[in-house]
């Protein structure tokens, strides 16, 4: 995969991941969940975004 393709795919992955996390956190915040359940849902959505970010970083990391 060429570098410009990696950049486009990575940017799209981060964008969609951030949107999904935002929608998920918004839905969890608007639901009737208790504080602990809401925290768990928001944590999962946030970690999903971080996992995508770490994957993008690993794609661009240079190997020796």
Q: Strand fraction band? A: under 5%
Q: Please, how many domains?
A: 1
| Mean pLDDT level | 83
The chain-level structural class is mainly alpha
Q: Strand count, sense and closure of the main sheet?
A: none
Tell me, briefly, the overall form: elongated
User: What percentage of residues falls in helices of 4 or more residues?
Assistant: over 70%
Q: What would you report as the Rg, rounded to the nearest angstrom?
A: 15 Å
> Could you state the oligomeric state of the chains shown?
single chain
Number of strands: 0
Question: pLDDT below 50 for ≥5 consecutive residues: which ranges?
Answer: none
Give the helix tally.
2
SSE string, helix = H, strand = E? HH
Question: Gap between N and C termini, in Å?
Answer: 18 Å
Notes on the structure:
- With 64 residues, this protein is mostly helical.
- The chain has one domain (3-60).
- It has helices spanning 3-30, 35-60.
How are the SSEs ordered, and which strands pair?
Layout (H helix, E strand, L loop, with lengths): L2 H28 L4 H26 L4
Helix pairs in contact: 1-2
Nutshell version of this structure?
With 64 residues, the protein is mainly α.
Structural key phrases:
64 residues, mainly alpha, 2 helices
